[in-house]
Amino acid sequence: NGLACVKRDGKFGFINKDGKEVIKPIYDMFSNFENGLACVEKNNKHGFIDKEGKEVIKLVYDGAWHFSEGLACVKKNGKLGFINKEGKEVIKPIYDGASNFEEGLAHIKKDGYWGLINKEGEEVVKPIYDEISEFKEDFASVKKDGKYGYINKKGIEVVKPIYDGASDFKQDLARVEKDGKFGLIDKEGKEIVSPIYDLFGGFHNGLANVMRNDKWGFINKEGKEVIEPVYGGVGDFFEGLARIKKDFFYCFGYCGFINKKGEEVIKPVYDMASNFVNGLACVKRDGKFGFINK
Q: Is the alpha carbon torsion for 99, 101, 102, 107 positive or negative?
């Protein structure tokens, strides 16, 4: 932005590239300039200045944060609200907690519960949830009475809070937990994979590793077990092959490789093996290292 912050006698100001003091060192704290404005603090009050040092938003707030999507969260008398770049309080400070706006929505907390508001201050989601995650693929997980579900950006509860745990949606699927077991749901709440697995890895190249009864295998995105859980440990698929180990959890010691059909194309005879990169994998046997091809 062409300005550098300087400190003198415990106060902060700004100089330009020629070393000229364009903003006198009079502030106790500052933030970087974003979109032409910087948040500053003096005598425990916060406001915003422009690059000429003009206080475009007076220092009247107990706290202030950077602008996001044209609005900044501010604190006044212990409550949070939002102002625009003209300093107008477009959303009055009435909330106990608040996040920055992202894609037109901000998380807000009131009386111990979380909801969502739009830029007009309308409560798209009433503050009724114990937790609301960030939106991923237009869905956010919510927690209510100890159970997790999902809402969309219209505030509709598309998946009722019935699960003990819930992850973000990735490629239209989300991992959920129920009674200590893991499964998969789609964005309509349909259980693509019932919660039957002890552990559930992420999808990589179309397949996810899963553990059941201490053995690992693979499922596809339709929930089909394409490789039965018979291995002590597995890695993700790289270049069409995945590391496997028959007897123990980690893929070290007597490692081999399987293809996506579950065929053991390289028998588990190595003490250690890396993933394949550019057609080669590093392996260890009898204390020595070498490389193998596919």
A: positive
236 CB burial (10 A radius; 0-12, 13-18, 19+): middle
Q: Strands 97-98, 106-110: parallel, antiparallel or unpaired by DSSP?
A: antiparallel
Q: Which two tokens stand for residue 151?
A: 């809402």
DSSP string across 66-117: EEETTEEEEEETTEEEEE-TT--EEEEEEESEE---BTTBEEEEETTEEEEE
- State the pTM of this model: 0.84
- Whether residue 139 contacts residue 158, with contact meaning beta carbons closer than 8 Å, is answered with yes
Alpha helix segments (H runs only) across the chain:
none
- Sorted by sequence, the CB contacts under 8 Å of residue 260 that are 6+ apart come out as 207, 218, 226, 227, 237, 240
- Give the Cα separation of 175 and 294 in Å (integer): 32
Q: Dump the DSSP string for 270-291.
A: EEEEPPPBTTBEEEEETTEEEE
Each residue's pLDDT tens digit, 241-287: 999 998 754 444 589 999 999 999 999 999 889 999 999 999 999 99
**Residue 271: is it exposed, middle or buried by C-beta count within 10 angstroms (0-12/13-18/19+)?**
middle
3-state SS, residue 31: coil
The Cα 115–Cα 144 span in angstroms is: 12
